[in-house]
Amino acid sequence: MASIRANARKVVCIGRNYAGHIKELNNARPSKPFFFLKPPSSILPPASGLVLRPAGVNLHYEVELALIMGKSLRDLDERDEKGALDAIDGYAVSIDMTARNAQDEAKRKGLPWSIAKGFDTFLPMSNYIPKNRIPNPYAVELWLSVDDEVRQRDSTSLMLFRIPRVLAEVSQCMTLEKGDVVLTGTPKGVGSVAVGNVMKAGLRVDGEEVEEGRIEVEIKDKGGLYEYKET
Predict the structure, then answer these.
(1) What is the distance between the alpha carbons of residues 93 and 209, in angstroms, rounded to a whole number?
(2) CA distance 171 to 199
(3) pLDDT digits (tens, 9 = 90+) for 154-206
(4) Looking at the DSSP assignment, which residues form a beta bridge with residue 63?
C-alpha cells in the first residue's frame, strides 16, 4: 500500500481495550467496544516530520496495533472471524497522541474528544506491515520508549475485545472502507512527553523485531495561534 494516509478515509480508534490501561486512568470497563474517530490529517507518516505539541497541552502517547482495511466491511457478524481477518490488508504500529488535559475536560463535561485527539501530527504511524509478517495478531508484543526508556511493553493477547468483535461493532454502525485504519487500543504504561523527547515504538513477533513497524519521532512545540484553555 503506497500511502496509509493517502488511502485512509477515516481512522477509527477503539477505546479501553486493555484492562491495565483502564485501571491506570481510573476509567470504567466497557461492556462492549466503543470507538471514536481521528481525522486522517492527524496521520504522521514515517520520516515526515516531528510531533507538534500545541501550547498548553499535556501530551500523552498511546502505542497501538493498527489494522489497515483491504476491502469494505459492513454489518459484520462478530462470530465471523474469517470474514473479519480476511477484510484486513495489513498492519502498522501507531502512536495515538492525546491532549490529556483537553480529554479530561471533555470527559468531565460530556463534550466530544475530537480536539484532544485530532491535531495535525497526533498519529505517528510506521510503514505498512504486510499481513504475512503477523500471522497471529493476538501474539504481538507492542512496545514504546521515551528517550530509550521503555514505557509500554505488552502483548496484544491482552485485548479485551478481539478483532472480529471490534470490526463488528464498528461496521454495524458505519461502513469500513478499503484503506481505512482501525486502532485496536493501547496497553498500560501511557504517560506524558515533553518537547525534545524522542519516542520510539515497534512490535515483535516471536521475539523478533518487525522492521517495517519501527517508529522514531521527536516532540517539538507547534507554535501558531492555538493555546489550550478550559472551555
Answers:
(1) 12
(2) 32
(3) 999 999 999 999 999 999 999 999 999 999 999 999 999 999 999 999 999 99
(4) 95
Judged on CB neighbours under 10 Å (0-12, 13-18, 19+), 76 is buried
Query: pTM score, two decimals?
Result: 0.96
Check: CB of residue 79 under 8 Å from CB of residue 124: no
- Which string of DSSP letters, residue by residue, matches 70-107? -S-B-S--TT-HHHHHHTEEEEEEEE--EEHHHHHHHH
- C-alpha torsion 38→204→188→106, nearest 10: 0
CA distance 165 to 168: 5
**Cell 519516542 -> residue:** 199
CA dist 14 and 161 (Å) reads: 9
Pairing of strands 129-130, 88-95: antiparallel
What residue has cell string 521475539? 207
How far, in Å, are 13, 48, 178 from residue 4 at the CA level?
Answer: 15, 13, 11
Residue type, 22: I
Phi first, then psi, for residue 109 (nearest 5°) are -100, 5
Q: How do residues 30-44 score in pLDDT, each as one tens digit?
A: 889 989 999 999 999
Which residue carries 512490535 as its cell?
203
Dihedrals phi, psi of 100, to nearest 5 degrees: -65, -40
Residue type, 166: V
